[in-house]
Amino acid sequence: MITKRNIPYLLILPALLGFVAFKAYPILAALYISLTTGAGAARTFVGLDNYVRLVNDPLFWTALWNTALILVVQVPIMLLLALVLALGLNSPLLRLRGLWRLGVFMPSLTGLVAYGVMFSVILSKDSGLLNWVLGIFGVDAIDWLGSPFWARIAIVIALTWHYTGYNAVIYLAGLQSIPKELYEAAMVDGAGAVRRFWSITVPQLRPILLLTVVLSTIGTLQLFDEPFVITGGGPDNSTLTISLYLYENGFRYFDFGYAAAIAYALTLIVAGFGLLQLKLTGGKK
């Protein structure tokens, strides 16, 4: 019987059923699969064997190291560039603001596979555009995709190009929400541009800065498309990430039990990093 009391529950029922079918069930099924081994329906329960294997797997630790290295190098560079771009786009001296903002945001609209292929061509050693430009200045051709060091740099360059504009737009929205009266009062008190930036802009942007740091960290820990398309995880596993290693175990070797264990390990790592960042930055305040 439909009454006013149960109408709200009936309205949320479709969403609840969708969550159970497409979220809760896969999560619980993946947890069970991570405790088994075998192919298809013929699975054997092995308990925590896949997790023990994970801890003793040197390739997993290589993937974790690569992911952490890209995270530590790329995310600060990207967010700093995004903040600088946002400050420039918010400047009253800038003309054609809409055009500049569109240009900054356009890279984030590019499909992941499409821009990955584009960068694999641009970074080609023999016929790439970047090496051609460097050659004009007398710099020898760099093997961007064939050297472990430069391959990591290539991934950092691609990620920075694609996501900097997205974060810049977020920062720009935050800058535009800061009351102008704060800057006017600071100028009356004799505060210079640098002092106003550190005393007004940064504190006012703190929640947004925290948001972008957390989102960028989570995104980098789940990094898959760029290494898969641009470098294939090579050379010599130098750009192998956790998500790419998960994919290889699940869909190349069809070891779904071990792949599910990697997925849960990645989930715990992402949750741990998120909680740590919130604690260190005082996110609860």
TrEMBL record:
It comes from the Bacteria. It holds the Pfam family BPD_transp_1. Keywords: Cell membrane, Membrane, Transmembrane, Transmembrane helix, Transport. SUPFAM superfamilies: MetI-like. Residues 64-277 form the ABC transmembrane type-1 domain. The keyword Transmembrane helix applies. It is a multi-pass membrane protein. Its main location: membrane. One of its GO terms (cellular component) is plasma membrane. GO terms for biological process: transmembrane transport. InterPro entries: ABC_transporter_permease, MetI-like, MetI-like_sf. The chain crosses the membrane at residues 63-87, 99-123, 149-173, 205-224, 256-276. It is found in: Cell membrane. PANTHER family: ABC TRANSPORTER PERMEASE PROTEIN, INNER MEMBRANE ABC TRANSPORTER PERMEASE PROTEIN YCJO. Belongs to the binding-protein-dependent transport system permease family. This is Sugar ABC transporter permease.
